[in-house]
Amino acid sequence: MNGWILAATVALGAGIGATLWGVATGPLRRRVVAQNLSTALACPALLLLAHGYGRPSYVDLALVLALLGPVGTLVFARLLAAELAEDPPRAWGATWAVAGFGAAVVLVLCAAEGPSRAMVKLLVTGALLIGGNIVASRALSGGFRGVRRG
To answer: What are the sequence ranges of the domains in the chain?
Structure first.
């Protein structure tokens, strides 16, 4: 076991533990935030595993997860809009912490990878991960100002 795999194990362990706790306990607002943060923690863990095992195909899986994870959260936000409007989630601290973790993982892996096509794929995955997580968290907390709900 090398340091990359150890870091991925810690990220997955923390992510799965927090997600299970968030989904199993508390109100609806905690459950949807836990679902959103689970994909935001699993994606950097997959990137670390890809580098640790030397399997570039794991980066493709992380790219798909970074794209589809926030989309799933947006579907939940749309379907549960009435319930979430009564008691909106307030998880900006967790959102920025997970976005910072994803950015740190992507930057470290880019430095380890060096200039190549793989680094471009890492940067695209990181941008999708961080941007999607922030947009999905904002949608869960009530949407954007100036945008009508339809």
So the answer is: 3-140
